[in-house]
Amino acid sequence: MHPFPVGWAAAGLSVCIVLSAFFSSTETALMSLNRYRLRHLASQGHVGARLAERLLARPDRLIGVILLGNTLANVAAASIVTLITLEFFGEKWLAASSAVLTLLLLLFSEVGPKTYGALYAERLALPAVFIYRPLLWLTYPIVWLINLFTNALLRLIGVPAEKVASHSLSADELRTVVAEAGSLIPIKHQQMLVSILDLEKISVSEIMVPRTEVSGIDLSDDWERILAALRETQHTRLPVYEGDLDHIVGVLHMKRVARELARGAFDRASLERIARAREAYYVPEGTTLNQQLVAFQENERRHAYVVDEYGDVQGLITIEDILEEIVGEFTTLPHALRHEIRPEDDGSFVVAGSTTPRALNRALGWALPTAGPKTLNGLILEYLETIPEPGTALKLHGHAIEVLQIADNAVRTARLWPAKARP
To answer: Does the predicted model carry a pTM greater than 0.70?
Structure first.
């Protein structure tokens, strides 16, 4: 009778535990890999990342070979422990030895390795793929047979095994990724990225210049008044209309006006001819900013007139307005404040009624609602449900408001205090 090879048995048991730990840890590591970083590394020529991408493209095959190896290692370990127990302790100690082996496998082949794999996924997974690639090739017939039965079972419950889980991110998920980038992306750049994602949620009517603030040339005015308007305008393009903005005949470019003036041939007829050469561009008020930005590019336009469902002009949207939603105001804050938001010594602000809530929020860091009325005047009228008198005071979304001026049944100016700041 040959002596029991206890040394070889102990060595074999150690190898089985190490193999089980390898399969367990690398399984967790491979499944924990950041797919976007993996894709980036693969595009940079990282061989391990490329192999990992190929393996993860069919997770059923990868999991098959991992579990096949892990199962064989655990079964072999159990068989060796059984032989050792029967040889030295007898059959009555089999239950105890099984319990000890289970504890060893749990600690050294499952919990510990898998925790390490989850914490250091890339460090462990990328080298491991050089082992799994040939191992999958060697065991492919067995893995194929195993997958054949498991995939059939999955189809019975309505799960196509060949379908790889989608790793595309939604807009909301991208916002979360940007927000969690921390110091990797500067705060200003984070704001710009989030603003780009928000373009699909904002309509042109929310940031347009209101109709009452749109400058233009009325062909029915006398010639001297038209010339005065042309001299005083700060815009490079002006709508030319008959009577009101709902009847725009064309868009006047000031460069062409300057050219005609230099030749001394500028009159009412040439004004109308120049304007009619460029038709107005109209867009529905519900158009989102991302759609409009693409439309501006496709139509080679820089501004458009926003119309409601009845075709009436509601305001003006420019490409600069959309870009400001992404990068912030092109002008400095004091310059913007002088036009629509004037700070007072007592900490309040005198604001034009045509100012949009979005402009107020962006300029002052407030949180007025932007989903409802598009102007401060609209917010006040919606809240009061009547046209107020000058001096009317109210509190709106935490801000104390005093109506200062009323004209043409609208709030022209109002005084606003920051939330909880009114004396």
So the answer is: no
